[in-house]
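Quick start: read one record
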Amino acid sequence: MSHGFESRTYPEMLAGGFSRVDGTIQFYTRVNALLSENMVAMDFGSGRGGWYTDEKLPYRRSLRNLKGKVRRVIGVDVDPAVSENPSIDEAVVFDGSHIPLTDASVDIIIADHVFEHLPDPANTAAELDRILAPGGWICVRTPNRFGYVALVNQLLPENAKSAILHFAQPGRKDKDVFEAHYRLNTRSALRRHFS
């Protein structure tokens, strides 16, 4: 999409660089409204924090960066590259079965486009529930299993997925692409795994 098309479709982009339908702005505005300086936040699936350096819009980057807004930000990921993430205070590698944090130790968990990658949603949901403090929040943004993004991803052969992803998100690096399972991406699955 060219910038000209975007600004004709969303003229408000000329004032700040984002549209009224910008999902990142909407999601992180809600997350920021929940924060307080005494909280411990967990960025679940935080990876290397590529958005921190790749994000061109300062406003969007400031919304996404929780470091300094809470007492501590813990980045948790299956990829050891999490230790490179500049937007976290502590890096934790998740082995897929146990998150090495104590019970009720996290006040807010953010999972931004992570739930579609979970191979074992029951175990992961139980782990997230275990470490979440009473009254805490789990904030999730993920594509619906039956939405067009998920359906296309499930129907296309692997070699076509890569080509389409590079076209749709030209700046996305291959090392930031993970297999999608879509096992925790419907309302019924969320209700089943989270009380």
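Strands lie at 40-44, 72-77, 90-93, 106-112, 132-141.
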